[in-house]
Write a structure and sequence with these properties.
Layout (H helix, E strand, L loop, with lengths): L20 H5 L3 H10 L8 H6 L18 H8 L5 H20 L1
Length: about 100
């Protein structure tokens, strides 16, 4: 690894994507699960890994808003300790980036 970082905006560089999305879309859930089981690079994080994991905070400011969420969902995030709103934000960001990538 050269140690060099390339900064890109969301969606930038998708023209370099060599993934065969049609082949992947045709896979069944069982075929995907089997491929994961057979992949030597598969990583299953354990509780210790989650305890050491860092949440990177974006440099842009967040917007305050009121939102209604299912009580069990909120309690589940809260039960995992301080920073639950940032973790919820991270989950939403991952979904957002996935959808934006696939809309192109």
């Amino acid at each position: 690894m050269s140690g060099k970082l390339t900064r890109m905006r969301l969606g930038e560089g998708l023209d370099q994507d060599l993934t065969d999305w049609a082949r992947l879309d045709a896979l069944t859930d069982e075929q995907i699960a089997e491929a994961i089981r057979n992949d030597p690079d598969t990583f299953e994080p354990d509780a210790e890994w989650f305890e050491r994991a860092l949440i990177l905070r974006p440099s842009r400011p967040k917007q305050r808003l009121t939102v209604r969420l299912d009580a069990d969902l909120v309690e589940w995030f809260k039960a995992r300790g301080p920073g639950y709103q940032s973790r919820m934000n991270a989950v939403l960001r991952a979904y957002y980036e996935h959808v934006c990538k696939n809309e192109r």
